[in-house]
Design a protein that fits this description.
Largest sheet: 5 strands, parallel
Structural class: alpha/beta
Radius of gyration: 25 Å
Strand content: 5-15%
Number of helices: 17
Order of helices and strands: EHEHEHEHEHHHHHHHHHHHHEEEEHE
CATH topology of the largest domain: Hypothetical protein af1432
Length: 434
Protein backbone atom coordinates (compact mmCIF):
# COMPACT_ATOMS: atom_id res chain seq x y z
CA UNK A 1 0.00 0.00 0.00
CA UNK A 2 1.09 3.56 -0.64
CA UNK A 3 2.00 5.82 2.26
CA UNK A 4 -0.51 8.35 0.91
CA UNK A 5 -3.34 9.08 3.33
CA UNK A 6 -6.71 7.47 2.77
CA UNK A 7 -9.69 9.70 1.99
CA UNK A 8 -13.40 9.22 2.71
CA UNK A 9 -15.87 11.31 0.69
CA UNK A 10 -19.25 12.25 2.21
CA UNK A 11 -21.88 13.76 -0.13
CA UNK A 12 -25.04 15.37 1.26
CA UNK A 13 -27.00 18.51 0.37
CA UNK A 14 -27.40 19.35 4.07
CA UNK A 15 -24.34 21.30 5.24
CA UNK A 16 -25.01 20.46 8.90
CA UNK A 17 -24.73 16.75 8.13
CA UNK A 18 -21.39 17.29 6.39
CA UNK A 19 -20.13 19.25 9.41
CA UNK A 20 -21.28 16.40 11.66
CA UNK A 21 -19.34 13.88 9.55
CA UNK A 22 -16.20 16.02 9.71
CA UNK A 23 -16.50 16.26 13.49
CA UNK A 24 -17.35 12.57 13.98
CA UNK A 25 -14.31 11.33 12.07
CA UNK A 26 -11.73 13.97 12.88
CA UNK A 27 -9.75 11.59 15.14
CA UNK A 28 -9.71 8.77 12.57
CA UNK A 29 -6.54 7.99 10.54
CA UNK A 30 -8.01 9.21 7.27
CA UNK A 31 -8.95 12.54 5.69
CA UNK A 32 -12.62 13.52 5.35
CA UNK A 33 -13.72 15.08 2.06
CA UNK A 34 -17.20 16.63 1.73
CA UNK A 35 -19.44 17.71 -1.13
CA UNK A 36 -22.90 19.27 -1.07
CA UNK A 37 -24.06 17.76 -4.37
CA UNK A 38 -23.39 14.86 -6.70
CA UNK A 39 -21.80 17.16 -9.28
CA UNK A 40 -19.42 18.62 -6.72
CA UNK A 41 -18.65 15.12 -5.45
CA UNK A 42 -17.61 13.98 -8.94
CA UNK A 43 -15.35 17.01 -9.30
CA UNK A 44 -13.66 16.19 -6.00
CA UNK A 45 -13.17 12.55 -7.05
CA UNK A 46 -11.55 13.55 -10.34
CA UNK A 47 -9.08 15.72 -8.42
CA UNK A 48 -8.38 13.19 -5.65
CA UNK A 49 -6.49 9.95 -5.20
CA UNK A 50 -6.63 7.04 -2.75
CA UNK A 51 -10.31 7.54 -1.95
CA UNK A 52 -11.10 4.45 0.11
CA UNK A 53 -14.84 4.96 0.70
CA UNK A 54 -17.73 7.02 -0.71
CA UNK A 55 -20.85 7.69 1.41
CA UNK A 56 -23.73 9.55 -0.27
CA UNK A 57 -27.17 10.78 0.66
CA UNK A 58 -29.91 9.40 -1.61
CA UNK A 59 -32.34 12.28 -1.90
CA UNK A 60 -30.45 15.31 -3.31
CA UNK A 61 -31.52 17.97 -5.83
CA UNK A 62 -30.12 17.68 -9.33
CA UNK A 63 -28.49 14.27 -9.00
CA UNK A 64 -29.73 11.43 -6.82
CA UNK A 65 -27.40 9.34 -4.70
CA UNK A 66 -27.97 6.40 -7.06
CA UNK A 67 -26.92 8.41 -10.12
CA UNK A 68 -23.92 9.87 -8.28
CA UNK A 69 -22.66 6.47 -7.09
CA UNK A 70 -23.06 5.03 -10.57
CA UNK A 71 -20.92 7.85 -12.01
CA UNK A 72 -18.43 7.61 -9.12
CA UNK A 73 -17.86 3.90 -9.88
CA UNK A 74 -16.38 4.87 -13.24
CA UNK A 75 -13.79 7.08 -11.53
CA UNK A 76 -12.97 4.80 -8.56
CA UNK A 77 -14.22 1.30 -9.53
CA UNK A 78 -12.50 -0.43 -6.57
CA UNK A 79 -13.79 1.97 -3.93
CA UNK A 80 -16.71 0.66 -1.79
CA UNK A 81 -19.81 2.87 -1.93
CA UNK A 82 -22.54 3.31 0.69
CA UNK A 83 -25.90 5.13 0.58
CA UNK A 84 -27.47 7.19 3.39
CA UNK A 85 -31.27 7.12 3.36
CA UNK A 86 -34.36 7.63 5.46
CA UNK A 87 -36.99 4.98 6.11
CA UNK A 88 -39.16 6.37 3.31
CA UNK A 89 -36.36 5.87 0.77
CA UNK A 90 -35.68 2.16 1.27
CA UNK A 91 -36.72 1.32 -2.32
CA UNK A 92 -34.38 4.02 -3.60
CA UNK A 93 -31.61 2.50 -1.47
CA UNK A 94 -32.21 -0.85 -3.12
CA UNK A 95 -31.87 0.87 -6.49
CA UNK A 96 -28.58 2.35 -5.25
CA UNK A 97 -27.34 -1.14 -4.45
CA UNK A 98 -28.50 -2.61 -7.78
CA UNK A 99 -27.61 0.31 -10.06
CA UNK A 100 -25.03 2.34 -8.19
CA UNK A 101 -23.07 -0.63 -6.83
CA UNK A 102 -23.56 0.38 -3.19
CA UNK A 103 -22.28 -2.28 -0.80
CA UNK A 104 -24.72 -1.34 1.96
CA UNK A 105 -27.16 1.36 3.02
CA UNK A 106 -27.26 3.26 6.30
CA UNK A 107 -30.47 4.59 7.80
CA UNK A 108 -31.09 8.18 8.90
CA UNK A 109 -30.92 9.03 11.72
CA UNK A 110 -27.82 6.89 12.27
CA UNK A 111 -26.14 5.46 15.33
CA UNK A 112 -22.67 7.02 15.60
CA UNK A 113 -20.92 3.79 16.70
CA UNK A 114 -22.58 1.79 13.92
CA UNK A 115 -21.60 4.46 11.40
CA UNK A 116 -17.98 4.41 12.58
CA UNK A 117 -17.87 0.61 12.29
CA UNK A 118 -19.43 0.73 8.81
CA UNK A 119 -16.86 3.28 7.62
CA UNK A 120 -13.96 1.30 9.11
CA UNK A 121 -15.22 -1.93 7.54
CA UNK A 122 -15.55 -0.19 4.16
CA UNK A 123 -12.00 1.13 4.35
CA UNK A 124 -10.70 -2.28 5.41
CA UNK A 125 -12.37 -3.80 2.37
CA UNK A 126 -10.80 -1.17 0.09
CA UNK A 127 -7.35 -1.75 1.59
CA UNK A 128 -7.67 -5.49 1.11
CA UNK A 129 -8.67 -5.01 -2.55
CA UNK A 130 -5.58 -2.83 -3.09
CA UNK A 131 -3.39 -5.37 -1.31
CA UNK A 132 -4.78 -8.19 -3.46
CA UNK A 133 -3.99 -6.21 -6.61
CA UNK A 134 -0.45 -5.72 -5.33
CA UNK A 135 -0.11 -9.43 -4.57
CA UNK A 136 -1.36 -10.36 -8.04
CA UNK A 137 1.26 -8.07 -9.52
CA UNK A 138 3.89 -9.78 -7.35
CA UNK A 139 2.78 -13.16 -8.75
CA UNK A 140 3.03 -11.88 -12.32
CA UNK A 141 6.50 -10.45 -11.79
CA UNK A 142 7.70 -13.58 -10.02
CA UNK A 143 6.45 -15.78 -12.87
CA UNK A 144 8.47 -13.65 -15.29
CA UNK A 145 11.50 -13.96 -13.03
CA UNK A 146 11.13 -17.73 -12.81
CA UNK A 147 10.91 -18.00 -16.61
CA UNK A 148 14.07 -15.92 -16.99
CA UNK A 149 15.91 -17.95 -14.37
CA UNK A 150 14.95 -21.21 -16.10
CA UNK A 151 16.23 -19.95 -19.46
CA UNK A 152 19.56 -18.83 -17.97
CA UNK A 153 19.85 -21.84 -15.60
CA UNK A 154 20.05 -19.61 -12.55
CA UNK A 155 20.68 -21.59 -9.37
CA UNK A 156 19.53 -19.06 -6.80
CA UNK A 157 15.79 -18.67 -6.17
CA UNK A 158 14.20 -16.58 -3.47
CA UNK A 159 12.59 -18.75 -0.78
CA UNK A 160 9.12 -17.29 -1.11
CA UNK A 161 9.20 -17.53 -4.91
CA UNK A 162 10.27 -21.18 -4.66
CA UNK A 163 7.37 -21.93 -2.35
CA UNK A 164 4.86 -20.25 -4.63
CA UNK A 165 6.28 -22.01 -7.72
CA UNK A 166 6.09 -25.40 -5.99
CA UNK A 167 2.50 -24.82 -4.93
CA UNK A 168 1.53 -23.62 -8.39
CA UNK A 169 3.20 -26.68 -9.95
CA UNK A 170 1.36 -29.07 -7.63
CA UNK A 171 -1.89 -27.27 -8.35
CA UNK A 172 -1.23 -27.43 -12.09
CA UNK A 173 -1.15 -31.23 -11.88
CA UNK A 174 -4.40 -31.51 -9.90
CA UNK A 175 -6.84 -28.88 -11.09
CA UNK A 176 -7.85 -26.44 -13.80
CA UNK A 177 -6.67 -22.89 -14.31
CA UNK A 178 -9.25 -21.33 -11.96
CA UNK A 179 -8.33 -23.67 -9.10
CA UNK A 180 -4.65 -22.85 -9.55
CA UNK A 181 -5.33 -19.14 -9.20
CA UNK A 182 -7.45 -19.72 -6.08
CA UNK A 183 -4.77 -21.79 -4.38
CA UNK A 184 -2.09 -19.22 -5.13
CA UNK A 185 -4.21 -16.51 -3.52
CA UNK A 186 -4.82 -18.68 -0.44
CA UNK A 187 -1.08 -19.20 -0.06
CA UNK A 188 -0.39 -15.49 -0.39
CA UNK A 189 -3.07 -14.59 2.16
CA UNK A 190 -1.81 -17.28 4.54
CA UNK A 191 1.72 -15.90 4.13
CA UNK A 192 0.40 -12.40 4.83
CA UNK A 193 -1.29 -13.73 7.98
CA UNK A 194 1.93 -15.45 9.04
CA UNK A 195 3.95 -12.24 8.72
CA UNK A 196 1.66 -10.24 11.01
CA UNK A 197 0.19 -12.91 13.30
CA UNK A 198 2.53 -15.87 13.51
CA UNK A 199 0.72 -17.57 16.40
CA UNK A 200 -2.66 -17.34 14.61
CA UNK A 201 -1.00 -18.68 11.46
CA UNK A 202 0.53 -21.65 13.33
CA UNK A 203 -2.86 -22.48 14.82
CA UNK A 204 -4.47 -22.20 11.36
CA UNK A 205 -1.96 -24.64 9.86
CA UNK A 206 -2.74 -27.13 12.64
CA UNK A 207 -6.47 -26.73 12.03
CA UNK A 208 -5.91 -27.23 8.28
CA UNK A 209 -4.07 -30.50 8.93
CA UNK A 210 -6.82 -31.77 11.24
CA UNK A 211 -9.62 -30.68 8.89
CA UNK A 212 -7.84 -32.27 5.93
CA UNK A 213 -7.55 -35.55 7.80
CA UNK A 214 -11.25 -35.51 8.73
CA UNK A 215 -12.24 -34.76 5.10
CA UNK A 216 -10.03 -37.60 3.85
CA UNK A 217 -11.56 -40.08 6.30
CA UNK A 218 -15.03 -39.04 5.13
CA UNK A 219 -13.90 -39.68 1.51
CA UNK A 220 -15.06 -36.24 0.40
CA UNK A 221 -14.42 -35.25 -3.24
CA UNK A 222 -10.98 -33.79 -3.80
CA UNK A 223 -12.30 -30.31 -4.66
CA UNK A 224 -14.41 -30.21 -1.46
CA UNK A 225 -11.57 -31.44 0.75
CA UNK A 226 -9.28 -28.79 -0.77
CA UNK A 227 -11.90 -26.10 -0.18
CA UNK A 228 -12.16 -27.12 3.49
CA UNK A 229 -8.38 -27.15 3.91
CA UNK A 230 -8.07 -23.67 2.35
CA UNK A 231 -10.87 -22.36 4.57
CA UNK A 232 -9.04 -23.76 7.60
CA UNK A 233 -5.83 -21.94 6.62
CA UNK A 234 -7.74 -18.64 6.56
CA UNK A 235 -10.49 -19.26 9.12
CA UNK A 236 -9.12 -16.66 11.58
CA UNK A 237 -8.28 -13.98 9.01
CA UNK A 238 -11.14 -11.92 10.46
CA UNK A 239 -9.03 -11.41 13.62
CA UNK A 240 -6.63 -9.16 11.69
CA UNK A 241 -7.12 -5.59 12.80
CA UNK A 242 -8.77 -6.42 16.12
CA UNK A 243 -7.49 -4.83 19.32
CA UNK A 244 -4.48 -6.35 21.08
CA UNK A 245 -6.66 -6.78 24.16
CA UNK A 246 -8.92 -9.17 22.27
CA UNK A 247 -6.05 -11.04 20.59
CA UNK A 248 -3.99 -11.62 23.72
CA UNK A 249 -6.74 -12.42 26.22
CA UNK A 250 -8.03 -15.96 26.73
CA UNK A 251 -11.33 -16.45 24.89
CA UNK A 252 -13.01 -17.68 28.09
CA UNK A 253 -12.20 -14.37 29.83
CA UNK A 254 -13.60 -12.08 27.14
CA UNK A 255 -16.69 -10.09 28.05
CA UNK A 256 -18.61 -6.94 27.12
CA UNK A 257 -17.35 -5.05 24.08
CA UNK A 258 -14.30 -7.31 23.78
CA UNK A 259 -16.52 -10.38 23.44
CA UNK A 260 -18.76 -8.61 20.94
CA UNK A 261 -15.73 -7.60 18.89
CA UNK A 262 -14.36 -11.16 18.95
CA UNK A 263 -17.70 -12.60 17.83
CA UNK A 264 -17.60 -10.50 14.67
CA UNK A 265 -14.49 -12.21 13.29
CA UNK A 266 -16.26 -15.03 11.36
CA UNK A 267 -18.35 -12.43 9.50
CA UNK A 268 -15.35 -10.15 8.92
CA UNK A 269 -13.42 -13.17 7.69
CA UNK A 270 -16.13 -14.00 5.15
CA UNK A 271 -16.33 -10.37 4.01
CA UNK A 272 -12.56 -10.27 3.57
CA UNK A 273 -12.48 -13.47 1.51
CA UNK A 274 -15.56 -12.55 -0.54
CA UNK A 275 -13.74 -9.58 -2.03
CA UNK A 276 -11.74 -12.14 -4.05
CA UNK A 277 -14.13 -13.74 -6.52
CA UNK A 278 -12.12 -16.95 -6.86
CA UNK A 279 -12.25 -17.58 -3.08
CA UNK A 280 -15.90 -16.83 -2.37
CA UNK A 281 -16.65 -20.55 -2.01
CA UNK A 282 -14.66 -20.76 1.24
CA UNK A 283 -16.15 -17.58 2.72
CA UNK A 284 -19.30 -19.42 3.86
CA UNK A 285 -17.22 -22.08 5.63
CA UNK A 286 -15.26 -19.37 7.47
CA UNK A 287 -18.52 -17.72 8.55
CA UNK A 288 -19.73 -21.04 10.01
CA UNK A 289 -16.60 -22.09 11.94
CA UNK A 290 -18.03 -21.06 15.34
CA UNK A 291 -21.56 -22.44 14.80
CA UNK A 292 -22.45 -25.24 17.25
CA UNK A 293 -24.38 -28.32 16.11
CA UNK A 294 -27.22 -27.78 18.62
CA UNK A 295 -27.52 -24.08 17.80
CA UNK A 296 -25.59 -22.31 20.56
CA UNK A 297 -22.83 -20.83 18.42
CA UNK A 298 -22.27 -17.57 16.57
CA UNK A 299 -22.68 -15.46 14.49
CA UNK A 300 -25.97 -16.94 13.22
CA UNK A 301 -27.00 -19.43 15.92
CA UNK A 302 -27.37 -22.05 13.16
CA UNK A 303 -27.84 -25.75 13.91
CA UNK A 304 -27.62 -29.19 12.30
CA UNK A 305 -27.72 -29.28 8.52
CA UNK A 306 -28.14 -25.49 8.50
CA UNK A 307 -24.37 -25.35 9.10
CA UNK A 308 -22.27 -26.24 6.05
CA UNK A 309 -20.38 -29.53 6.34
CA UNK A 310 -17.11 -27.65 5.96
CA UNK A 311 -18.14 -25.29 8.77
CA UNK A 312 -18.90 -28.25 11.05
CA UNK A 313 -15.50 -29.78 10.28
CA UNK A 314 -13.68 -26.45 10.87
CA UNK A 315 -15.41 -25.94 14.22
CA UNK A 316 -14.37 -29.42 15.36
CA UNK A 317 -10.76 -29.11 14.13
CA UNK A 318 -10.47 -25.63 15.68
CA UNK A 319 -11.69 -26.96 19.04
CA UNK A 320 -9.27 -29.90 18.97
CA UNK A 321 -6.20 -27.75 18.36
CA UNK A 322 -7.18 -25.09 20.93
CA UNK A 323 -7.83 -27.67 23.64
CA UNK A 324 -4.83 -29.89 22.90
CA UNK A 325 -2.36 -27.05 23.55
CA UNK A 326 -3.68 -26.89 27.14
CA UNK A 327 -3.32 -30.60 27.92
CA UNK A 328 -0.33 -32.34 29.47
CA UNK A 329 0.70 -35.89 30.20
CA UNK A 330 1.19 -39.00 28.10
CA UNK A 331 -2.57 -39.54 27.86
CA UNK A 332 -3.20 -36.10 26.28
CA UNK A 333 -4.58 -37.62 23.08
CA UNK A 334 -6.96 -39.76 25.10
CA UNK A 335 -8.03 -36.67 27.06
CA UNK A 336 -8.87 -34.74 23.88
CA UNK A 337 -10.89 -37.64 22.44
CA UNK A 338 -12.93 -37.73 25.69
CA UNK A 339 -13.57 -33.97 25.43
CA UNK A 340 -14.69 -34.33 21.82
CA UNK A 341 -16.94 -37.28 22.67
CA UNK A 342 -18.59 -35.24 25.44
CA UNK A 343 -19.48 -32.52 22.94
CA UNK A 344 -21.00 -34.77 20.27
CA UNK A 345 -24.60 -33.84 19.48
CA UNK A 346 -24.31 -30.53 21.35
CA UNK A 347 -21.19 -28.88 19.94
CA UNK A 348 -20.24 -31.27 17.16
CA UNK A 349 -21.91 -33.31 14.42
CA UNK A 350 -21.98 -36.94 15.69
CA UNK A 351 -21.33 -38.13 12.14
CA UNK A 352 -17.78 -36.72 12.49
CA UNK A 353 -16.87 -38.67 15.65
CA UNK A 354 -14.85 -41.49 14.07
CA UNK A 355 -13.05 -39.17 11.66
CA UNK A 356 -12.19 -36.81 14.54
CA UNK A 357 -10.62 -39.62 16.60
CA UNK A 358 -8.56 -40.72 13.61
CA UNK A 359 -7.39 -37.14 12.99
CA UNK A 360 -6.30 -36.82 16.63
CA UNK A 361 -4.17 -39.96 16.34
CA UNK A 362 -2.72 -39.14 12.89
CA UNK A 363 -2.13 -35.39 13.08
CA UNK A 364 -1.44 -34.32 16.66
CA UNK A 365 2.14 -34.55 17.84
CA UNK A 366 2.80 -37.01 20.62
CA UNK A 367 2.92 -35.40 24.09
CA UNK A 368 6.35 -35.08 25.76
CA UNK A 369 7.72 -38.12 27.60
CA UNK A 370 7.93 -38.14 31.39
CA UNK A 371 11.55 -37.06 31.12
CA UNK A 372 10.51 -34.09 28.99
CA UNK A 373 7.45 -33.31 31.12
CA UNK A 374 6.12 -29.80 31.50
CA UNK A 375 8.05 -29.07 34.70
CA UNK A 376 7.24 -25.62 36.03
CA UNK A 377 10.12 -23.15 35.72
CA UNK A 378 10.53 -19.77 37.38
CA UNK A 379 11.83 -16.96 35.18
CA UNK A 380 12.16 -13.17 35.37
CA UNK A 381 9.66 -11.42 33.11
CA UNK A 382 12.47 -10.15 30.87
CA UNK A 383 13.48 -13.74 30.01
CA UNK A 384 10.08 -14.80 28.66
CA UNK A 385 10.01 -16.00 25.06
CA UNK A 386 7.42 -16.71 22.39
CA UNK A 387 6.02 -20.26 22.65
CA UNK A 388 6.35 -20.60 26.45
CA UNK A 389 3.14 -21.46 28.35
CA UNK A 390 2.25 -19.72 31.63
CA UNK A 391 1.49 -22.06 34.51
CA UNK A 392 0.34 -19.25 36.82
CA UNK A 393 -1.58 -16.00 36.34
CA UNK A 394 0.30 -12.69 36.05
CA UNK A 395 -1.32 -9.74 37.84
CA UNK A 396 -0.59 -6.02 37.89
CA UNK A 397 -0.11 -4.14 41.18
CA UNK A 398 -3.82 -3.16 41.49
CA UNK A 399 -4.66 -6.85 41.20
CA UNK A 400 -5.81 -6.77 37.58
CA UNK A 401 -5.25 -9.91 35.51
CA UNK A 402 -2.65 -9.29 32.78
CA UNK A 403 -2.32 -12.85 31.42
CA UNK A 404 -3.92 -16.03 32.71
CA UNK A 405 -2.31 -19.41 33.24
CA UNK A 406 -2.45 -21.64 30.21
CA UNK A 407 -1.64 -18.74 27.87
CA UNK A 408 0.88 -19.65 25.17
CA UNK A 409 3.09 -16.58 24.80
CA UNK A 410 2.96 -14.72 21.50
CA UNK A 411 4.62 -11.45 20.40
CA UNK A 412 1.31 -9.76 21.29
CA UNK A 413 1.17 -11.22 24.82
CA UNK A 414 4.82 -10.27 25.47
CA UNK A 415 3.91 -6.75 24.37
CA UNK A 416 0.97 -6.80 26.81
CA UNK A 417 3.39 -7.64 29.64
CA UNK A 418 5.69 -4.83 28.55
CA UNK A 419 2.83 -2.31 28.52
CA UNK A 420 1.83 -3.32 32.07
CA UNK A 421 5.45 -3.45 33.31
CA UNK A 422 5.18 -0.25 35.35
CA UNK A 423 2.17 -1.59 37.29
CA UNK A 424 3.57 -5.11 37.84
CA UNK A 425 5.46 -5.56 41.16
CA UNK A 426 9.23 -5.49 40.62
CA UNK A 427 9.73 -8.88 42.26
CA UNK A 428 7.16 -10.62 40.05
CA UNK A 429 8.36 -13.87 38.52
CA UNK A 430 6.73 -15.81 35.70
CA UNK A 431 6.10 -19.53 36.01
CA UNK A 432 6.22 -21.32 32.69
CA UNK A 433 6.49 -24.62 30.91
CA UNK A 434 7.89 -25.11 27.42
Amino acid sequence: MTDESLHVLFVDDEINILKTMTRLFREEPFKVLTASSGVEGLEILRASSNVGLIVSDQRMPGMTGTAFLQAASEIFPDTPRMILTGYSDVNAAIDAINQGGASRFLMKPWNENELRLAVRDGLQRYQLIQENKRLNEVIRLQKEEMAEWNVNLKARVLQQTTTIRKQLEETRQQSDRSQKKSDAMVLLLADLLDRGHHQISKHSRNVAALAGSIAATLHLPLYQAEEIRNAALLHDIGLIGMSERVLTKSRELLSGDDLLEYRTHPVKGQETIDTIEELQGIGRLIRHHHEEFAGGGFPGGLSGEGISLGGRILFLANYIDNQYTLLTGKDAKYQITRKVAAGMGRLFDPALAQAANQAVMEVLADPPTAQQSHTEQELPLRNLEVGMILTRDIYSNPGLLVLERGTRLTPQSLEAIRLHQLSIPLNTKAYIRK
